[in-house]
Design a protein that fits this description.
heterotrimer, A mainly alpha, B mainly alpha, C alpha/beta, B: ABC transporter involved in vitamin B12 uptake, BtuC, C: alpha/beta, 2 domains, 10 helices, 10 strands, 24% strand
Chain lengths: 358, 299, 263
Amino acid sequence: MFYREAGQFKSSYAEDQQIFPIRQDRIGITALLLVVFVAVPLLGDQYWLSAIFTPLLIFALAALGLNILTGYAGQLSLGTAAFMAVGAFMAYNFMLRLPWLGVIPSFILAGLCAAAVGVVFGLPSLRIKGFYLAVATLACQFFVLWAIQRWGWITNYSASGVITAQKMVILGFPFDTPALKYLLTLSIVTLLALLAKNLMRSETGRAFMAVRDMDVAAEVIGIRMMHTKLLAFAISSFYCGVAGAMYAFCYLGTVEPEAFTLDLSFRVLFMIIIGGTGSILGSFIGAAFITLLPIFLNVMFGGISHLLGVEIPHAVISNLELIIFGALIIFFLIVEPHGLARLWQIAKEKLRLWPFPH
Amino acid sequence: MNVAFFFEVLIGGLLAGVMYSLVALGFVLIYKASGVFNFAQGAMVFFAALTFISLVERGLNFWLALVVTLAVMVVLGIAIEKVVLRPLVNQPPITLFMATIGLTFVLEGLSQLVWGSQPHGLELGIQDVPMEWLSQSTGINISQFDIFAAGVAGLLVAVLALFFQYTRIGRALRAVADDHQAALSVGIPLKHIWAIVWSVAGFVALVAGLMWGARNGVQYALTFIALKALPVLILGGFESVLGAIVGGLIIGASEKLAEVYIGPMVGGGIESWFAYVVALLFLLVRPQGLFGEKIIDRV
Amino acid sequence: MSARAHPVGEVVLSVENVSLSFGGVKALQGITFDVREHEVRAIIGPNGAGKSSMLNVINGVYHPQQGTIKLRGREFHDMNSHEAAKMGIARTFQNIALFKGMSVLDNIMTGRNLKMRCNFLQQALWIGPARREEMAHRRAVEEVIDFMEIQHIRKTPVGKLAYGLQKRVELARALAAEPTLLLLDEPMAGMNLEEKQDMCRFVLDVNDHFGTTIVLIEHDMGVVMDISDRVVVLDYGKKIGDGTPDQIRTNQAVIDAYLGVAH
C-alpha cells in the first residue's frame, strides 16, 4: 500500500537508470545510511562495534569482491583469503617502509598488489574453465600463504610470522577507537560498494555477465575474452585486498598468516551463496548472515543448556555449528539458489501489489 | 648426484602418488557417473576412517568393523542422493559443487560429534619401515608400507574395473557416465545408480582412509588430503580412472623430487603448492588434461 | 518486387576453397561462394550439411584447416571472433545464445560494446563521459527495441521469455552493433506461422532500412525462396548448388539431395 511506484514517471533515460528508481527505496536507503553512519556509532557499545559491525562490513567487502568475480563474471574462485592476505601484509609493508604515504594510499596500493596477484593467478582462466579453474585458484591460496610464511621480508622478519598493524592516522587525526575504526571501515565499504554498483550497471558489468552466461556469444559480439576475464580477476582481487588490509588494520590489529586459510575463502564463498550471487546487496546480506549466525547459535545453545540445566561442551557446540553451517548451505542451494537477495526482491514485488494481488 | 638416492626419492614419490590416486579415484567415480565434483570426498575419507577406528577401539573385530563401516558408507551414499542430489537435479554443476562443500562441513561436524575429535592411531599390521633386503642389496630405502599401499590400490582398481566391466550395475554405470538422457531413456534408474556410485565412492573412501589413517593417524588433518588429490584430478582429467592413477604417480614423483632438489633453494615446504603448479603448467599445454578428450564448443 | 532502396552491389565477402574438419569428420570440403553487398544470401541443405559450420567459419568461431576468407578486400586465413565483430559482422545462433541472466535491455546493450570508449574507472565513477556515453547508447538501443517491437519486455530477464521473443531479442542484439554483414542461423526455426511471417518482415526490413547484407540459414523452403536473392546449397559438407531461387528450384542435384535418389 505504501510501497507503490504509481505516479512516479520517468522522463529521461538517466532517471530510468538510477540505482534506486523507486522513491520509497531512495527514502529507505537514506534512512539506512543515517542509521549506520550516525546512530550506530553513537549508540552502539564497544563490543558490538569492534567485534560485530566492523568485521561484518569487512567481510561484506570481501564477499563483494568475490561476487564480482564469481557472481558476475562467472569465474569460480577458492582463493579469496589469499587475496585478502596479500592486501593485509602489503598494507603493513607500505606503512612500514613508506610511512609518509598515509593510510588510505597504503590500502589502495595494497589492493593493487592483490590485483596484480589476482591477474597472475587468473591467467589460467584463459585456457580452463569451471572446476579446473576452481582448483587452479587453490594454487594461489596455498602459494601465497607459503610465500608469506617463508619470505621473511613480507613479515619484516618477525619470528612467528605475526605482524602488528601500525596505528592509523589520517590527516593528523588518529583512528584508534572502535567507533572511529567502524566509521572508517563503513566509509570505505560504502564508497567501494557504490563504485562496484556503477561498474556493474555499465559496459564492464555487462561484459562480465556476458562472459558468465555464454562465452562464445560474448566473443562473437566483440567482447574481448582475455581482457574481460583478467579485469574481473583484477577488480575482484583489489576489493579482496582492501578488505584484507582493513581486516588487519581496522579489526584484528595483530595478524598471522594462518588467519587467511582456505576456511576463510570458504566462509566468503558461503556469504555470496547465501546472500546471492551476482548481487551487490546479496554480498552484504550474506556477510551479515554468516557473521551473525555463530553469535545467534551461541546464544541459542546457551539458552538451551540453561533450560536443561546441563553444560553443553564447547566441542559439541563447534561441531554442531559446522553441521548447521553445511546444512544451511545445502538448504539454500536447494530452496533459493539465488540467495537471500532474491527473496528480498520477491518480497518487494509482492509488496508492490499488496493488498490487491491481482 | 647420488643415483641411489635419486631413485629412492623417485620411487618413494611414485608410491606416495599412489596414495593420492586412491583419493582421486573416489572423485573420478562420482564425477563420471553424476557430473558432480564431490568436494566432500576428503570428508568422506575422514568419516570412514574415524568410524572404522572408533568401532575397532570399542572392541569390534577388524573384519566386522570393516563390514559395519561399509554399511554405514552405503547408507550415507543413499542419504546423500536423497537429501542433497535429488532436489538439485538439473542445477548447474557449480551449484552441485557448492552443495558438496556444504556436505563437507556436515560430514566433518557429524563425524567429530559422534566419535569425538581426538586423533587415533591405526594399526594394519604393516610397519612403515624400509625393506631391509632392498636397503642392504641396493642402498635404496623403500618403505614396505608404501609397497603394501600400492598393492592395495592396484587391487582396488582391478576390483573396480571388473565391477564396471562385467556386472549389470557396472554396465548401467558406464551408460550413465556416457549420457544421462540416453541412459534414462533405455530405462536405467538414475536415482539408484547415483546412490550406488556414492556408495562405491564411500567404499573407495574407506580404503583410502585406512591407508592414510595407518600412515598419518586418523585425525582431522585427513580431510586435507582431498586437497592433495585435486591437482591429480586436473592433471589426469576428472573423467579418467587411468588419469587418476597416472596423474597421481606424476604428482607424487615430481613433488618429492622438487622437495628434495628445488625445495632447499626457495626455503622448503613447497609441497603445499608445488603439485598445483605442476598441474597448472601442464594444463596450459593441454587444457583437457592427460586423458581427457578435446572439447569442441558447439554453437 | 518494387525497386530496392539499396540495390545489390559488389562482392563484399568471398569464401574460397574452405575446408574444415573435426578429427575425422569433414564438416566442409572446398567450399567457395561469395556474398554481394546489400543482398540476402541463403545457405540451405539437409541436416548435417555443414551450414552452421560455414557461418562459424565466417565469423571466426571455427578455424578452417584450408582456404581463405576475403572480407572487403582483406584476406584472412582464419577469422577470429573479435576481429570479425570489429569488421561489422554480427550474428544470431541456431540455439539461441542470449545471456540468460540479464534483462532484454542489457542483452541488447552488450551489442554496442565495441562502440563504447570509456574505461572501467570512468564507468565506476559514473560521471561525465561514462554517464553520457551510457545514455547515448541507451537511446540507440531504444531505437532497435522500437524497430523490433519489443518495448513491452525491455526489463524482463531473457530467460523468462517465450522462444519466439528470445529469437527477436537475439536479432535485436545483433542489430544494436549496427552490422554491415548479418549472419542469421535459422532465425525462424521452431516458430509458428505468424511468428515466421513477423520474422521474415523483420529480416526484409533490416535489409531494406539499413542496407545490411544478410546471410541466412533456413530450413523453410518457402521462406528461403521468398526472401533471398541467391541461394547456396550444401550437402555433406560440399557445395551442390548456387544461384537464384529459380535456378535452385530446377537444379537436379539439389532435388536429389532433398528428396533422395533411387539407386
